Amino acid sequence: MTVLGVAVRAGAPLGGGAERVELADGRTVVVKKAEASALRAEAAGLSWLRVAGATPVPAVLDVDPERLVTEFVPPGAPDSAAAAALGSGLARLHAAGAPAFGAAPPDGPSAAWIGHAPMRNEPAPSWPEWYAADRLLPYLRTATDAGDLTRDEAAVVELVCDRLPALAGPAEPPARLHGDLWSGNVLWSPAGAWLIDPAAHGGHRETDLAMLALFGCPHLDTVLRAYDRTAPLADGWAQRVPLHQLFPLLVHTVLFGRGYAARTAEAARAALRAD
């Protein structure tokens, strides 16, 4: 077996279809196997997220319909300095912008993925309209049809969709999002934090920050303070965290079932209380 035209010396699984691969020329790379459209979307996303001064992402070394080869980033441990750099770097990444809410990265497919769930990336004129139509409602229908959300649980999410223009907060320009920024997709290295496994698209910058909080990011308070110093957040952003967490919670309900149903419904109720 060869990678980048070089014989493979050894490999070790990293999870999520990825493998750390040692090449005969001494290099170490990451090789990921997945659906061809998912590989194409991830490669396009990684390239789009490479913004000067922003949090770094692994370089794309090769991509074809069967595998994606990226730079290997050695693991390390989180600390407050790295967390502060992550916050300011995310602010710069978001400020790089996107053509529209829902826009795919250049050369990225509109039919993309978040984890193992399909995700549609099509431009829309406003964040509330797009967030309801292309993020909340598709996963709500899937979860409800599968019996993973009850009618009452679904109704409260539908009410959020109906009230989104009032819940969305001050209008903001489309941000360049990682798109799946739960804590597991922050790789802490000896050189600081890196972002991996994106589901990149144009969206609302508060979504990335809310996803960081969803499953517990190390030094989150430091990350958020550094972000706010670099690009001040709009008034009321903390009260809108449940609104932005509703999308990843619906995705988890679709992928993993009723174990996430109660948390999804509570996020919807909390979003409505913030109005």
UniProtKB/TrEMBL annotation:
SUPFAM superfamilies: Protein kinase-like (PK-like). InterPro entries: Fructo-/Ketosamine-3-kinase, Kinase-like_dom_sf. Keywords: Kinase, Transferase. It holds the Pfam family Fructosamin_kin. Coiled coil: none annotated. Belongs to the fructosamine kinase family. This is Phosphotransferase. It comes from Pseudonocardia xinjiangensis.
